[in-house]
Amino acid sequence: MKDEPIMACAEENPDEKPKCNPFGTRFLTDDTKVFEHNAWDDVEWSPEQQEEAQRIVQGQKSMKVDEEKAMRLLSTPADQWDAFYAHNENRFFKDRNWLLKEFPELNVEDESNLQKEKIEILEVGCGVGNTTFPLLQVNNSSSRLMLHSCDYAPNAIRVLKSQDAYDPEKMNAFVWDITQPASQEAPNVGSLDYIVCIYVLSAIHPDNIKNALKNLVRLLKPGGSLLLKDYGRYDLTQLRFKKDRLIDGNLYCRGDGTLVYFFDMEELETLLAEHGLQKKVMHVDRRLIVNRAKQVKMYRQWIQGKFLKSC
Asked: Where is the signal peptide (predicted)?
């Protein structure tokens, strides 16, 4: 694949919020109506909720993973995911059919792409294709798309490439640990229009995230975009962890041994800026999920962002 012509940088608009999200835009203005719907958007926490979350996380520090287990998990993070996909194949995750609502530029026919002769997208941490195949389907009629997909779990790539929908004319799936230099199968330096990172950086040890970002940013065109969604600090997932899950700081292990880190928005923005990525959009998606049958409230926090590579 040849490098594409350099694009001009888009105008930065840091105050813009995502155009949409999977649940639409529903705001809770009357607490007595909280159980009338399954989800509410941009629900601000009270000071008491914030203090309770901090108390829970502080309490987790007395129940950390033992040092030997932590060292084992940290030394072979790809092995845990590889074992996960070997066991689950393509039966665990659902397809992310909400992608174009949050990231409409991934549609080849979006107005931001109309002047481009070719569009190259890299999905990082592709797993078995729950982002890859929905993107291919929505853009299947376009001859301008080249979709790259990488994961550091060989079993994930094996499952993805074995599926009938895999089209080697439009797709390039390969194994790559993004904390290491790019493999020969990776797209060319400076060739990508978009990099999609959904729950990817949180699966990497914080000490290795800088290497990962450096390697990814090299592949973006000037003016190309990194599209991000990941776990925010004090998300329900973090607060639910019990004994033997906290490794250190805000880094945890799940029951299957895979790692997950919970970001503060300013921390993540600083990391991205250090690697030449300018904020276009960044938003903490504070979602209140409601189990109406059981009258239970569940508070989720994700960080969404769009970042441009400096010209």
From this structure: none
